[in-house]
Automatic annotation (TrEMBL):
Pfam families: DcpS_C
NAD recorded as keyword: no
InterPro entries registered for this protein in UniProt: HIT-like, HIT-like_sf
GO MF assignments: catalytic activity
Organism whose genome encodes this protein: Acrasis kona
Name recorded for this polypeptide: Histidine triad nucleotide-binding protein
Amino acid sequence: MMFDVIRRFMFYVFVTVTGSIAYILITIKNMVVARKKIRVQGSECKFCMNSIARTKQTVLYSDDLVYVLEDINPDAKFHFLINTHEHIVSINSLKRKDIPLLQHMQKIGSKMLQEKGCDPRSCTLGFHVPPFYTIKHLHMHAMGGGFSSLLHKLPFIDGTWLFTSTNQLIATLNKS
Ligand SMILES: [Zn+2]
Ligand SMILES: [Zn+2]
């Protein structure tokens, strides 16, 4: 009789202890998985994703350094985004050694606009000035054929605290 009680008690202890250990392990595992998920989402960059061809948008041009998309919310008749394949956060991360990359971006942007019948000299080609940008991945806006309205033009006026033309940016880097 006594032996039976002890056996039942031991069995109860065994179930409780193993159950608790399993519960703790599962909780820890879920916490680790959740943390991992947050980390991946945090490092997920829309333009890096586009770069590895996971975009639903049509890639209009691509080479070793850049790829071109149409802006999904165009501010001008023709509005292209020249994006770097490399994850560069903003113009603030650029050094003198990046001038050839900028010249290349300018060349591709001009080419895209020329193909639409625009004269690149009368077009807007340039970059957001931090902190006034939403996507933290270097991209050049190339716009031609006229802005949709004055309101659409305002964020893209060269030399303001919002925007710098590629030529102006190159000149600044040259002086640094
Ligand atoms: Zn990126
Ligand atoms: Zn932009």
